[in-house]
Amino acid sequence: MRANTWAGRNKVKVRDVPDPRILNERDAIVRITSTAICGSDLHLVDGYVPTMQNGDVMGHEFMGEVIEVGRGVDPGRLRKGDRVVVPFPIACGACGACAAELYSCCENSNPNAGIAEKMFGHPVAGIFGYSHLTGGFAGGQAQYARVPFADVGPLKIESDLTDEQVLFLSDILPTGYMGADMCDIQSTDVVAVWGAGPVGQFAMDSARMLGAAKVIAIDKEPYRLQMAERAGYTPVNFEEVDVRSRLLELTGGRGPDKCIDAVGMEATHGSAALYAYDRVKQAVRSESERPHALRQAILSCRSGGIVSVIGVYGGFLDKFPAGAWMNRALTLRTGQCHVQRYMKPLLQHIERGEIDPTRVITHTLPLDQAERGFEMFKNKQDHCEKVVLKP
Amino acid sequence: MTGLATREAIKARQDEVQRRGRGLGWMSLGLGVAQLAASDTVRRISGVDDSPTSRAVVPLVGARELIHAAGLLTNRRKSMWVWTRVAGDAMDLASLGLAIAHRGGRRRRRLLVVTGAIVGITVVDLLTAVQATRAKEVGAVRGSRRGGPMELTATTTIRKPPPKVYAFWRDLDNLPTFMAHLEKIRSTGNRTSHWSASAPFGTNVEWDAEIVDDTPGEKIAWRSTGNADVPNAGTVRFVPAPDGLSTEVHVVLSYDIPGGAIGKAVARYFGEEPHQQLDDDLRRLKQVLETGEVVRSDGAPWGKRARKEFPQRPAQPLSDAEFAKGAQA
Q1: Are strands A306-309 and A331-334 parallel, antiparallel or unpaired?
Q2: Contact of A6 with A58, CB cutoff 8 Å
Q3: Cβ of A137 and B286 within 8 Å?
C-alpha cells in the first residue's frame, strides 16, 4: 500500500510499504477513506519529538471502512463493513486509566512503556504514527491501518454525514473541545485562545458552545485571525499589538478568565530577542520547548483563572512563570485528549448542526501529495489551515 | 558474602577514579585559564617567547585544556575524558620536542624543565586513564561479573481481584506468557516444577524448583532446588489495592550469580538494567490479565520476545517474510 512516512528531520516521503495485518486478537484493519495532517505531525517532522525512525508511517487522524476484524473483537461492537472514525490514542478500555476515562494515559496500549516512563515518569498510551515513545504504531496517512483494541476506540458512523464532517472527531475537534471543557466555562467568562490553527478554532467554537461571553483569538497569521473573526471571535495579532495590553483592554483590566494554549512547543513570538533565546536553546537541545504561548497565557490570565493546555509539549522548558501561577491562584490543566470520552457527544453536536468541523478545511489532496501538504501547512502557504488527504 | 565484599572494593576503586579525574579537571582548568589569560608569561617561563608560532599555539593549547576541564568536571564518565588528556599530553610533548631541537642556552634549559613536568603529568594521566577504564569494565552490570547475589524488585497494579491474579500466577504454565526469558515451566508435582529459560547465544538453562510458601490469594514463594546453574528464588505477594477491586503485585527475585563464564553470560543477559526487564515482565502480566494478550505494535511486533525498545523496526506493517520469520523465532 501507499503510505506517508517520516524520512528524517524536515522530510516526509510517500512510499510503498506492506499492507497491515492482524497482530492481536482485538485488532481490526481499516481501509482509510480520509485522513489529515495535524499540527502535532509538524513537531515530529521538525524533529522535536524523540524516537522517530526512518520509515515510520505517520498520521493519527483517520477514518474508513472496517475490512477485517480479529477473532477477539466483540461482533456487537464492531463488524466488517462498519464505517468508523478512529481516535488517535489507543486505549484498552480495561485498565485503571481507561476506567477513569483517561484514555490517553492507557496503561496497556504502549508496548514501549519503558521508554515513555523514562521520559515522563509514568507511561502514556500508544498513539498511531506518533514516534516509538508512544508505541511504534504505524499511522493513518496510508491506504490501510491496523487498529488495536478495535472494540474500544473506533466510533461507528451510522448516519450519512460526509467524511469531512466527522473526520476531525479523531483528534482536533475533541482536543479543542477538551481545551474548553477543562476551563469550567461560566456564562460571564472571557476566554482567550492562543493559536488560531485548527485546534484553536475548535477550542473557540467549543468555548462558545459551552456558553462563554466572549472569545478572543491570538495568532499572527492574518488569514487565520480572519477565519476566527468570521466565526465571531475577537482577533488579536501578536505581531501588531502587545498581547497583554490588548487583553487588558478587552477585559476591562481583569485579564481573560480562562486561557487556552493551543500552540505548544514551537511557538513564535513578536519579540525577536525572546524568540531567539528559546529558538537557540531548543536548537541546541538545552530545552525542548519554545513555551512562549504558555508563559504569556499564565501572565495574562486573571487571578484565580484557569490555564488549559492542549498544545503539545514533549520535554523540558525554561523560564516557567511559577511565581505568577502560584501567587495568583491559577489552575493549570492539561492532557493529550481523551478522545474516546468526547467522540459520541460531539458527534451529536455535529448531527444537530451546532458545530461545523468542515469550516477549517482549506485543502484536500490525494495521499500521494502528502509531501506538498506538509510543506504548505508548515509554511502557511496559500492560506493553509487544514489539509485532508484522500488515499 | 564475598560478592558484596568485591562490590565494595569496586565501588571504592570507582570513587578513587572519580576523585582523581576531578583533580585533573581542576588542573586543566588552571592551566587553560593561565595559557589564555597570561599567554606571554607562560611563553616566557617555557622558553618559547622567541617564536611567533607559539603566540598562536599557547592559547590554543589553553582552549584545549578548558575542554578537558569541562569534560572531567561535569561528566561522570571520567575514563574517556582522561584519555583525551593523555592524547593532549602526547601533542604537547611532540611540540616541546620540536622546540627543544631548535633552541640552546637558557631557553633550552627552561624547555627541559617544562618537558620534565609534562612527562610527570603524562604518567599520572596515563595511570588514571588505565584505572578508570578498568574500573568501568569491572563496574559494568553492577559488579555482577564477579558473581554474587542480585536482588530485583518490581510492582504493578492490576485491575482484577487478588484471588484471580493469584490463580493466574499459581498456574505456573502461565508464567512464560509474560516473563521474557522463561521458555517453559512443567509441573512435576503439586509443589515441584521444572523450568527452562533461554540464555545467551541460543543456549538454554534448566533447573528444578519448588514452592516453599503458598498462601492462596496472598502469596507464593519458590526457590530452585538441586544443582541449578544459577540458584534463584522468588516471592510474589498479592495485596488488595485501596480501590477495593484491584491487586497490587509485589515481586522480589533473587539470583545467586556464579563467577566465571556462566556468571558473565548471565550478567550480559540481564544487561545494564535488569530492573527494566522485570518491570516489563509485570507490564506484560498486566496486559495479559486486563486485555487478554501481550500488546504488539509495528515497531515492537513480537510481544514478550521484543527485548529491545529502541531503535526497533520502523513503525510500518510487517512484510510477509518478516512475519514468517518472526512467527517461528
Answers
A1: parallel
A2: yes
A3: no
The residue of chain A with its CA nearest to that of B327 is: A23
| Chain B contact set for A108 (CB, 8 A) | 286-287, 290-291, 295
Residue A167: its H or E element: none
Higher local confidence (pLDDT), B100 or B191: B191
What is the SS3 assignment for B2? helix
Q: Parse chain B into domains and list their residue ranges.
A: 7-141, 147-295
Sequence-distant (≥ 6) Cβ neighbours of residue A16 within 8 angstroms: A1, A2, A3
Q: Which residues of A touch B (CB under 8 A)?
A: 3, 5, 17-21, 23-26, 51, 53-57, 72, 92, 94-96, 99, 107-115, 117, 126, 129, 132, 135-139, 146, 148-149
Closest Cα to residue B235, out of B256, B208, B209, B254? B254
Q: Based on the number of CB atoms within 10 Å of its own CB, is B179 exposed (0-12), middle (13-18) or buried (19 or more)? A: buried
Would the CB atoms of A18 and B157 count as touching at under 8 Å? no
3-class SS of residue A390: strand
A chain contacts of residue B283, beta-carbon cutoff 8 Å: 113-114
Q: Which three cell numbers stand for residue B156?
A: 504493578
Min Cα separation A17/chain B (Å)? 7
Cα atoms in the Cβ-side hemisphere of radius 13 Å centred on A234: 15
Cα dist. B146→A351, B140, B152, B230, B267 in Å? 69, 10, 18, 14, 9
Q: Does domain B147-295 have CATH number 3.30.530.20?
A: yes
pLDDT-derived band of residue A281, with 50, 70 and 90 as boundaries?
A: confident
Q: Which helix (H) or strand (E) holds A363?
A: strand A363-366
Tens of pLDDT, residue by residue over B310-320, are 568 899 999 99
Q: Which of B306, B309, B318 sits opposite A18 (nearest CB)?
A: B318
Q: In angstroms, rounded to a whole number, what is the distance separating the alpha carbons of residues A205 and A264?
A: 19
- Closest by Cα among A325, A215, A334 to A265: A334
B204: β partners: B198
Q: Which letter does DSSP use for residue A20 in this model?
A: P
Number of DSSP helices (H) and strands (E) in chain A, helices first: 13, 17
Residues sharing a CB contact under 8 Å with residue B63, sequence separation 6 or more, in sequence order: B32, B36
Which of B287, B300, B320 lies closest to A136 in CB terms? B300
Q: E strands, B241-296, where?
A: 247-257
Kindly write down the DSSP assignment for every residue of B141-167, as one continuous string.
Answer: GGGGGG-EEEEEEEEEEESS-HHHHHH
Query: What local confidence, expressed as pLDDT, does residue B10 receive?
Result: 65
How far apart, in whole angstroms, are the C-alpha atoms of residue A203 and residue A192? 10
Q: Are A142 and A158 in contact (CB under 8 A)?
A: no
Return the C-alpha cell found at B245: 477491586
Please tell me the distance in Å from A80's CA to the nearest CA on chain B.
20
Other beta carbons within 10 angstroms of residue A161's beta carbon come to 16
Single out the residue of A339, A330, A323 nearest to residue A307, CA to CA: A330
Instruction: Choose between B301 and B212: higher pLDDT.
Output: B212
CA distances, B201 to each of A57, A101, A216, A308, B204 (Å): 33, 45, 64, 52, 9
DSSP one-letter string for B54-117: HHHHHHHHHHHHHHHHHHHHH-S-HHHHHHHHHHHHHHHHHHHHHHHHT--HHHHHHHHHHHHH
Greatest distance between any 2 Cα atoms in chain B? 92
Q: Of the candidates A17, A24, A96, which has its C-beta nearest B317's C-beta?
A: A17
In the prediction, which pLDDT does B268 show?
Answer: 64
Measured on CA atoms in the order B314, B320, B326, B329, is the torsion positive or negative? negative
Task: Report chain B's mean pLDDT, rounded to a whole number.
Answer: 83
Q: List the domains of chain A with CATH numbers.
A: 2-171+337-390 (3.90.180.10), 173-334 (3.40.50.720)
